[in-house]
Design brief:
Keywords: Membrane, Transmembrane, Transmembrane helix. It comes from Nitratireductor aquimarinus. This is EAL domain-containing protein. The chain is about 55% helix and about 20% strand. It is globular, with a radius of gyration of 22 Å. The structure holds ligand C2E and magnesium ion (3 copies). The site of one magnesium ion has 4 residues, from loops. One magnesium ion binds next to β6.
Length: about 290
């Protein structure tokens, strides 16, 4: 990246070189500032989680929620995880941040009724950090959440770094009784061999494949193939990013088991989730009284 800019700068003369140097300096500085801010964001209470429902497509029943991290920056407002997570990963700040996510999500889910699941995203750096399985174990004990209600979502980039170590860690995690889902299936590097090499419990097809699955023949073919792989391997498939009723009915007619997306429910703060539970409870008791 730096080399390219330098090359361009040289070919364009001295002043341009200074210009690029200045611009790159700015970018690097902004990144250092963000790294610094991320180190303090947990203790400054700038993070919160939102929860997005995951539903069974045949009955519409709620299975659980995925916890998604939000950063409310004191000056710059909400910053998207797509922007700050890569920075937190590179600086290592994702390890304490991820632990906060795990703790907060498990503690919330421990208070929910029934057997609702909680899905938590775990990044590569976190998965490979020292004692990660021990951390998960401790959080489960501290929050009282049953292990079978926790599912961690891992993208393929987390696995390819060090396959051997990733496998050891995943086995330790599974030994705790928790579930492991492959996130963003199809977008990574060598999805199929990863599926074979690692003990996943679920496949999450990336939302980009669900877009227009009901109207685009290519999209439909790919999704049907993934559903076939899931069936063959005995793994449930979750479709991410379901945005329309057309996409939903296509997926249901192809026996995709689970869905998640704006059409089924937006990510919402814990207060809204709890209010929803109360409304459901009220409806049930009204129905019983009638
Ligand atoms: P992901 O785990 O694949 O999460 C799904 C993303 O799709 C979320 O974006 C969600 O808000 C968005 N989404 C849900 N339904 C729809 C839909 O119908 N249409 C569209 N277009 N998008 C939908 P979000 O919250 O911005 O998170 C982006 C990514 O950041 C996540 O992708 C995940 O990789 C990462 N992330 C989020 N929270 C955490 C976290 O706590 N830890 C780590 N390590 N990564 C996280
Ligand atoms: Mg995810
Ligand atoms: Mg995903
Ligand atoms: Mg993603």
């Amino acid at each position: 990246h730096a080399d390219t800019a330098l090359y361009r700068a040289k070919s364009e003369g001295r002043d341009t070189y200074r210009f690029y140097e200045h611009e790159m300096g700015q970018e690097a500085r902004a990144r250092r500032i963000m790294e610094h801010e991320l180190r303090h964001a947990v203790s400054r209470r700038e993070f919160h989680l939102v929860y997005q429902p995951q539903k069974k497509l045949d009955t519409g029943d709620l299975i659980g929620y995925e916890a998604l991290l939000r950063w409310r920056h004191p000056e710059r407002g909400n910053i998207s995880p797509g922007v700050f997570i890569p920075v937190a990963e590179e600086s290592g700040a994702i390890v304490p941040i991820g632990e906060w996510v795990l703790q907060t999500a498990c503690s919330a889910a421990a208070g929910w009724k029934d057997d609702l699941m909680i899905a938590v995203n775990v990044s590569a750096v976190q998965l490979h950090s020292v004692n990660f399985p021990q951390t998960v174990h401790r959080v489960l004990l501290e929050t009282g959440l049953s292990p079978h209600r926790l599912e961690i979502e891992i993208t393929e980039t987390a696995l390819v770094r060090d396959m051997h170590r990733a496998l050891t860690t995943l086995r330790q995690l599974k030994a705790l009784g928790i579930k492991v889902a492959m996130d963003d299936f199809g977008t990574g590097y060598s999805s199929l061999s990863n599926l074979r090499a690692f003990p996943f419990d679920k496949i999450k097809i990336d939302g980009s494949f669900i877009r227009q699955v009901d109207t685009n023949e290519q999209a439909a073919t790919i999704v049907k193939a993934v559903l076939g792989i899931g069936r063959g391997l005995g793994l449930p498939v979750l479709a991410e990013g379901v945005e329309t009723s057309g996409e939903l009915s296509f997926l249901a007619s192809e026996f995709c088991q689970i869905g998640q997306g704006y059409y089924l429910g937006r990510p919402s703060p814990i207060e809204d989730v709890l209010r929803e539970f109360e409304t459901e409870e009220q409806k049930r008791s009204d129905a019983n009284a009638a």
